[in-house]
């Protein structure tokens, strides 16, 4: 069995590859810095004699040495892990360049081209932003509750849209696209509903990620954008990304199992 661990800011992902090729994925909240003790806790239910190797990536993975109880430890740079895993999950042709967008607590953009991976941009806006703003404005950090509120609201209740601020179209932009995120709140006397605030938060984060990603894709003349991480699991946020990408004629991809892209990337790198 081979084990790969991605130490994320919010969630740690554990991927186990059995001898027959089957993958088993587990996750846990990232409450501790990486240590041998933590790894031993993670693998405590596995017979140590069955573990062939352990691959590590993510925050502070360098705190671990090159072996644990005589098990080989492979350290994989986060950029390579994200790029390798995201491109693998996308199932794109190997000759197709792509921007891999890791939308986790924050957002990183990786150029994947000809088997090489380069960090090319990013933003501090991501899933952590959704949780932080939701705690301040909605009094919750429960992802399911935030998603439920947002699905019953509309960003038009919080945002100034293009139709509010100009008298005619601007290029191909639709009249209901956001001109100013949360700009409407300062201009109305009544408080927006929790549902509209949640939708506004989703829209803010989704549009920011999309604009960063499409700008990078344009700069590197790439058409395919692969979005991985947990943040795209918010349906409204995913819709915002898809809409923004379509306006710029880019091809957004949301592969299955995107939440453990970095872990599978680390596993793939260690197998090479």
Task: Write a brief caption for the model.
This protein is of the alpha/beta class and 272 residues long. It has helices spanning 36-42, 78-90, 127-138, 143-151, 162-165, 194-219, 235-247, 261-271; strands at residues 2-7, 11-17, 23-29, 53-58, 67-68, 71-75, 98-103, 107-113, 116-123, 160-161, 178-180, 224-228, 251-253.
What does this structure look like?
With 272 residues, the chain is an alpha/beta fold. The chain is globular. It has helices at 36-42, 78-90, 127-138, 143-151, 162-165, 194-219, 235-247, 261-271, and strands spanning 2-7, 11-17, 23-29, 53-58, 67-68, 71-75, 98-103, 107-113, 116-123, 160-161, 178-180, 224-228, 251-253. The protein has 2 domains: 2-80 and 260-271, ATPase, nucleotide binding domain (Nucleotidyltransferase, domain 5, 2-Layer Sandwich), CATH 3.30.420; 123-254, Nucleotidyltransferase, domain 5 (2-Layer Sandwich).
Q: What secondary-structure arrangement, pairings included, does this model have?
A:
Elements: E1 2-7, E2 11-17, E3 23-29, H1 36-42, E4 53-58, E5 67-68, E6 71-75, H2 78-90, E7 98-103, E8 107-113, E9 116-123, H3 127-138, H4 143-151, E10 160-161, H5 162-165, E11 178-180, H6 194-219, E12 224-228, H7 235-247, E13 251-253, H8 261-271
Parallel strand pairs: 1-4, 4-6, 7-12, 12-13
Antiparallel strand pairs: 1-2, 2-3, 5-6, 7-8, 8-9, 10-11
Helix pairs in contact: 2-8, 3-6, 4-6, 6-7
Q: Tags for this entry?
A:
single chain, 272 residues, Nucleotidyltransferase, domain 5, 25% strand, globular
